Amino acid sequence: MHSKVAVVGVGQTTFTRSCGISIRELCFEAFREAIDDARNLSTEDIDGLIICSAPEYDKQRSPAGLIAEYLGLNPKPTFLAEAICASSSVGARIAWSFIRSGLHKIVAVIGFQKMSELTSAESQERMLRGGDIMWESPFGSMMPAYYAMFARAHMNEYGTTEEQLAKIKVKSGMYSMMNPKAMYQKETTVEKIMNSKIVASPLKVFDCCANADGASCIILASEEVAEKISDTPVWITGLGLASAPLSLASRKTVSSLSCAVEARKQAYKMAGLKARDVDVAEVHDCFTIAEIMAYEDLGFCKRGEGGKLIDNEETYIGGKIPVNVDGGLLSKGHPVGATGGSQIRTIVQQLRGEAGKTQVADAETGLVHNIGGIGLYGSIMIFSR
Amino acid sequence: MGFEKFGIMSYTKETKVEDFVKHLEDGRIMGTRCKKCGTIIFPPRADCAKCLSSNIEWTPLSGRGKLITHTTAHFAPAGFEAPYTLALAELEEGVRVFTRICKDDEKDKLKIGMYVQLVTKRLGDERITYELKKI
To answer: Which CATH superfamily hosts domain A5-119+211-229?
Structure first.
């Protein structure tokens, strides 16, 4: 009882525009990599499987059952966890609780999305219904429009500029090129971003992440077994999860994500640390403005100074707090259900000192900020080696 | 039935507050008010989350408010025609509304904090919506 919980294995597929394989095969690749990543682990050691996906993209009804079968995990229990883009962080939280309760010892959390399964029009229609379908979708609301409205409010309130937004994408593109699993392998410039087509003013094409196919897998284990499985277990030391109104009209603020602020308070309190103690962070940059808001919501800078933080390159490696050094959602790609697991994988590799060219020196504490939809679910997780 | 007439495209037709559309057709923009705790709710709800009462009544809104944020969409989801401007405004009553800015005002420079009026708008014979106009 009350065992500590560690991540003992991580894996992910390369994120691509169109993977050309089935979802079961996609999940298999991520799972095998996570099993191989742990020093001493095989399929039969896994005693629970949590599948994380935004089901509106899936053709297969109840994919958890199918995936458990394909991975050879029957009769181990399995089910789906859903919180849109935060699905696999929520899956990890459930796995943590399963292990802490003593009910399970080793749980695999697989997140996946094959967004290419839908046509672009179908995908947009799904995203449209991501707003309040009674009071907001009827006007043509969509993900980029909501984040554009956050951006407009942030610019008005704090003087944040379109150039500062572009600089987020420049950083993301640069680190993405050092990540062989990232979708975009292209460097970009502020000028190119500023000249890209407007999607929803002030956001342009390059301010937005793109749909992607991919899967991630993280394996969590109890303290008693973690050190037998892995030479380098990474401990989960803080967890925060919160919600905010789905409808924009019910929110008190539109230049910050209140669910992230609330989740941050919980996670920092549980881990017993402050923003300045975090050495490396993964934040949910579904749009460039989302990363700027995350800097502030996490306390990496004062409210309104997110733009200055990127101007001063403080979120690059070597800066005050390196953020999204794997390319982030903007350039690595954002296969909705897989994203949280991919972020956790990046932080685990950083804390193990296995991040290669993007290694943040002496990283001991890492943070994952994973947001569902337009900021209705906010998950913050803190990890320590 | 009845709610399917609301907005540019609707996704649901049944709700306890479908009379909202009838009021809209008569030119009134109504919120609901909880008879138990007095909370004014907009968009209208049949149930009060503050005191869990479903004893509510319709209450007219002034429609006057201030612009909080906005965006012009240059790409539209299936069924919608870009460009159009979406906005969030706070009304005098302290409630917020998410809708479109009227086409005539769209070309002008919108300023956060500017005064706006929420007005009803007919869309052909069948549909009805509300939108924000500059005052």
So the answer is: Thiolase/Chalcone synthase (3.40.47.10)
